[in-house]
Amino acid sequence: MIPIESLIPFMLASIILIASPGPDNLFVITQSAIHGSKTGILVTLGLVTGLIFHTSAVAFGVAALLQTSDIAFTILKTVGALYLIYLAWQAFSAHKTKIKGEKLPPRSASQLYRRGIIMNITNPKVSIFFLAFLPQFVAPENGAIAGQVFVLGAVFAALGLSIFIVFSLLAGKIGTWLNQSEKAQLYINRVAGVVFIGLALNLLTTSNHIEPH
Asked: Global pTM?
């Protein structure tokens, strides 16, 4: 069992890291502003689910492979970057749909959920980050190492879910105002496209020795 004196510092550090600007933050905020808070929340659920993959990777040592194998790291980050470029293309081409006075064709909850999962698990920096961050709060005398890692991962995911839902709600309110005009929708989709391309380039140019946020 992880003692409270270790858990509290972990939670405080996690809150700061989660709230700091980063790819997941930008992803949730832009999706919420464009398509509404519900979309952002569904994407957030996918992102949080993806953390199970990274927590398991740390607990069972797979993240160490990403840190030591340039090939594995390059393949995974390339897949993630291509997906972000695909999202950018979707954002740039959104102006082809008439949006004034009507909503954009909705995506299903499962599609939005999967989008969040793909966004998260194809970012190898998260596994590297968890590999560097979680073990700092693990001690052999507190029980099984893998069990402690899963507990910390669950706490981090719960905090991330709460903070990102707040981001989604706030961005959704701004998006509702912006979406009242077709021109505003066009601009925000263009901004989203630029953001996605920026995230893709950032992912492609990172190495497996850089700590993510």
From this structure: 0.71
Helix (H, G, I), strand (E, B) or coil at 212: coil
Report the C-alpha gap between 149 and 86 in whole angstroms.
Answer: 33
Q: CA 134, 136, 141, 145 torsion: positive or negative?
A: positive
pLDDT by residue (tens digit) across 47-101?
999 999 999 988 887 667 666 778 877 886 787 788 778 878 877 886 544 433 3
Give CA–CA dist 67/135, Å, rounded: 15
| C-alpha span between 151 and 118 (Å, rounded) | 23
Q: Can you list the alpha helix ranges (DSSP code H) found in the chain?
A: 4-19, 23-35, 37-60, 62-68, 70-92, 109-121, 124-133, 145-178, 182-204
Tokens for 142? 């507190």
pLDDT, tens digit, 9 for 90 and up, residues 134-173: 877 887 788 887 888 899 999 999 999 999 999 999 988 8
DSSP 36: -
Tell me the C-alpha to C-alpha distance, in Å, between residue 213 and each of 22, 95, 129.
Answer: 6, 32, 8
Cα radius of gyration (the chain): 18
| Residue that is written with structure tokens 């740039």 in the block | 92
